[in-house]
Amino acid sequence: MAHGSWRNNHPRPLFDQTAYNSTLPNGVAMGCEVGLAGMKLSGILEWLEGIAPLRYAEAWDNVGLLVGDRQQTVSRGMLCIDYTDAVADEAKDAGCDFVIAYHPPIFKAMKRLVAPCKIHDAIRRGVAIYSPHTALDVAEGGTNDVLADAIGLVDRQPLKLSDPKVTVAKLVTFVPKDQVETVANALFQAGAGKIGNYSSCSFRTEGEGTFFGEKGSNPQAGKAGQLERTSEIKIETVVPLDRLSTVIAALRAVHPYEEPAFDIVQLMAPPVARGMGRIGRFDSPIMRDVLFNRIKQALQIDHLLIAGATTGIAHTAAVCAGSCGDLLDEAIRQKADVYLTGEMRHHDALKAAAAGMTVICTLHSHSERITLRHLRDRLAEEFAPVHWQLAATDRDPFAIR
C-alpha cells in the first residue's frame, strides 16, 4: 500500500478532483475562485473533502463544515486540534475568518446558541469552522499515516478496515422518447448521475410501456378507459442518499406523466481498503529506547507514558491517533510488538502488557498535532492567497511536570 500523498511532494493519490492536480502560475489550485481578499471557501472545502472524504468518517462523528457559508470568501485560516475559548480569541485577534478544528467543536446536538459562546461569536463574525476528524484519520496520508511515518513504519495497512457505507441508491424511471433529455437533465441538475469525477452518468434502454387509465385519470398520451402502449426509454442513474428527496421532486416536476413510475434500488456498499489505525513493520528492527526517543523528537514532546516492556527489540508496531483502546484487541491479534496511541484505559494497558506488547501513550492530542503542520503546509501550497497559521494557544489540556 503506497503512502506518498499530500504530506510531501510525492504523488497525491488522495485527490478525487483532477482539477487539483495542477496549479496556476501564482500557486492557486485550478478550479478555485479567487476573491478580492482571499478565496471562495467552497474551493478549499472541495480540496479538503477530496483528500479526506467525509463519507469515510466514523458514523458517530460530526465532520465537515459546521459553521459558515460555502460561498463566503476567506483570507486567513487557522488550524487547531481544539477550538477552545483561547483559540477562538487568538483567531479573532489574528483576523482569521476560517478555522480548521480537528476535533469538532459541535459534537452533540445544541439546543440554543446565545452569547457569550464561541460558536455564537463565530457565526456573528462570519467565521467558518470545518472539522475533518475521523475522515482525516482514515484517509491515506492522513493522521494515522503521519503518525506511522513518524516512527518509520513500512509495508503498513489499516489496523481495522472500515465498515463499507452505502451512500448512493439507483433511480430507475421510464420516460417517453421525446421527453427523455428534459427529464434526465432535471435529474442531473438535482444531484443525480455523479460517479467519481464524472457527471450526467446514466444508462438508457428502449422498451414499451403499457397502462390502463382508470376512471378519473388524465393520461398524457392515449385515452382513459383503454389499454395503451407507448415507446419509452428506461433511465437508470445513481443518486446520493442525501439528494434522493430533491431528485424525486425534480422527477415529479418535469415528468410528462400524471403518475410517473420509478424505482429506488438499494445498493450494496463496495468493500473499501480504508480503515482506522495502521500496522506495519520497522524498516529494520529497532531498540525500544531508541524508538522512544524517535517518538519524542518527531512529536516534539518531552515525556511518554509506557506500559509493558521498555527494553529489547521491536519488529512491528501499530499506531492509532487519539484514544484507540477499542482497537487494542486487533493490535494484539496481529501480534504488534508496540502500540503507539494518544491514551489508553488502565485495564487495557494491563491487558496489553500481559500480552507482551509495549503500549506508548503520548497524551491524546500529541498523537494528532503533528498532522496539523503537514496540513498547514499543503494548504499554503495549494491556496497561496490565503494566509495559514497554526494556533499558538492550542495545546493538550494535560501537562506532565
Topology, element by element:
Blueprint: E1 34-35, E2 38-40, H1 41-51, E3 64-67, E4 73-74, E5 76-80, H2 85-93, E6 98-101, H3 118-125, E7 128-131, H4 133-138, H5 143-151, E8 153-161, E9 168-176, H6 180-189, E10 203-212, E11 227-240, H7 244-254, E12 262-266, E13 275-287, H8 288-299, E14 305-307, E15 313-323, H9 328-333, E16 338-343, H10 346-354, E17 358-361, H11 366-382, E18 387-390
Parallel strand pairs: 5-6, 5-18, 6-7, 15-16, 16-17
Antiparallel strand pairs: 1-2, 2-4, 3-7, 8-13, 9-11, 9-12, 10-11, 13-15, 14-17
Care to describe what's here?
- Mean pLDDT is 87; it is low at 1-6 and 8-36.
- The strands form four sheets. The protein has a six-stranded mixed sheet with strand order 8-13-15-16-17-14.
- Strand 6 (98-101), helix 3 (118-125) and strand 7 (128-131) form a beta-alpha-beta unit.
- Helix 5 crosses helix 11 (366-382) and helix 6 runs antiparallel to helix 7 (244-254).
- The protein contains eleven helices and 18 strands.
- By secondary structure, the protein is an alpha/beta fold.
